[in-house]
Amino acid sequence: MKNLIQTALTALAIAGLVVVADAQTGKPVTIVDANTVSLAELAKLPNMNAELAKALVAKRPFKTIKDLDTALSSLSKADRAELYTKLFVPINLNTATDEEILLIPMIGNRMLREFKEYRPYAALAQFHREIGKYVDAAELARLEQYVFVPLTK
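RESULT FIELD:
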């Protein structure tokens, strides 16, 4: 049994490294990833309950934030917006749709234009440099946690 657990943990660690190796992801500050958060932690988030948390876990993995948004359609738009301050599926800066970008809490049309203006992003450093022209360091850190940049080969 111990070997089985060790093998499973090793496989999970390797899988995590593959994901990290394929993309630069923002550092979580105030949010958790909807695909990896524990059931218990999920149930404690704003506008969640045990039943909805179980339903979300059963629908994993969410490929996009839009998939998560659809799964949460029983919540009002305002309740989902509040929840997204704590739970999200990171978006690809180079391919995210307007609708996906606008699901980031407190993003408006102006910042939507700025996100898209600098595409394609080669690295998160470029995101920092360009978006940092418009927001302070704290806001930049908040925005970064919602995005990723795939590494090009």
